[in-house]
Amino acid sequence: MINDFYKVACMTFLMLIIGVSVGFGQVYTMEAEDADLTNAGVNASGGGCANKSGSGLVFMRGTTAGDGDRVLAFNSIDAPSTGKYTMKLTYFASKESKLELVVNGGTKTVLSDFELTGFCYEGPSNVYSFEIDLNEGANNTITMSPVEGVTSPYLDKLEIFSTD
Ligand SMILES: [Ca+2]
């Protein structure tokens, strides 16, 4: 009985530590440069820029024919339940930028109105928030592609939070 009490206490404590370390309500975090980049996307390292997180940035361009085929995929996103979540995309944009978003192979959504931040070395990043639907379980996928003919933002990090 006492053993069980300690087990529960320890588990609760561990869950609290894990909860604090990933941030309250946060279900996912991934650096863009650590996600799955296909079709010869361009990974801009961000050089020695201190305003990014992780080791770099992903820049898929968009302005050259064929750039629309580039895909940055965030796979195996684990959601605790089916429903609405808030996606927070940390980025840099030095001019008007757009990005195509697909969640779980669904409809393409074009994200626009990225507030301009300048390049990474010029100042802090900004966060683009967008509400998405995820399914319960670890099989959620979010893909991002350039809108062909338009510059993409420099992608730094993707975080997902529960909305309640
Ligand atoms: Ca990064």
From TrEMBL:
Top-rank lineage group of the source organism: Bacteria
Segments forming domain CBM6: 28-161
Native organism: Flammeovirga aprica JL-4
GO function term, MF aspect, one: carbohydrate binding
Protein name, as recorded: CBM6 domain-containing protein
